Amino acid sequence: MPRINLSRVRELCMRALVRNGASxxxxxxxxxxxxxxxxxxxxxxxxxxxxxxxNGLKTVNKTAKPVVIDGAPGTVIVDGQGGFQPxxxxxxxxxxxxxxxxxxxxxxxxxxxxxxxxxMWGVAESLATSGFxxxxxxxxxxxxxxHNGKRRVFGTNxxxxxxxxxxxxxxxxxxxxxxxxxxxxxxxxxxxxxxVPLGVGIGPDGEPTTVPSxxxxxxxxxxxxxxxxxxxxxxxxxGAALVGAHLAVDHRPGTQFDTISRGLFVIAVDPTALVxxxxxxxxxxxxxxxxxxxxxxxxxxxRYQHRREVLEKGKLxxxxxxxxxxxxSLAEGSKL
Length: 336
Description:
The chain has helices at about 5-20, 25-40, 50-55, 85-105, 120-130, 185-190, 210-215, 225-240, 280-290, 300-315, 320-330, and strands at about 5, 65-70, 75-80, 105-115, 135-140, 145, 150-155, 160-165, 170-175, 200, 210, 220, 260-270, 315-320. By secondary structure, the protein is of the alpha+beta class. The strands form four sheets. The chain has a seven-stranded mixed beta sheet, sandwiched between helices. Strands 11-10-12 form a three-stranded antiparallel beta sheet. The chain has a two-stranded antiparallel sheet with strand order 1-14. The longest helix has 19 residues, at about 85-105.
């Protein structure tokens, strides 16, 4: 398995995207998102996703310049102009932070974007690092059946949460799909020739299966039965309906992936605007969680540990042979 450094990850991403027509701004935002995922050990959202972004350059506005619309005092709307979402997120965050600081709470809607949204922890961590609590919701194309359903009606519908920590500690952040497994994780299991647990998905025939290729052709399932199905419904409404993006049910069989509009909805809160809940209050909870389980950890601690090993100790990143060959071909081979 090839082992490469972070600079090589970024180089592969930038070269593949720019040589296939992406503007420097669009390519940089995507490359930084994919590089951050590899840096933090989130391989399902790293180089594994590069091919999909490059393929998206055929239909997505690859030179789009997102526009920030200054709405109500506590509202930020970002029109992605038909481009990829990472740049639209990046462009909108400064205004969201400013309005949250000024008003105590603010919200951001990102609309008119396409392609992949990326992991939600990037937005949540950025806000938490600036001192804000946040909730982040995004839609996706139709991949997930409702509880007891037999066909796709939801996306994997990721959501994220961020909470600032005391004394300069890295913020508490979590990010998860509404499905039992993220689609990228199922794809990696398929590439490795393994099976997934029961409850992850159903085949095209509507029957439970542990074979990743059958699930990818059929439907994923929400986590936690009807409870996860309710969460997926909520994220579908917030991340798609509320911001004017396509619903998963608009994604008919055969519809090209990158023609589905992507939405993002973010709520940010300045905790100092509320009753003075001291930072120690949250830290007592975190300490209790860690003490209750030997070897336990808080969300994102594994990511932060991997980040330190890469940035401070020069740890190299393992990339599956097939993924690396594809990325090299995209960056150095024939243009698509």
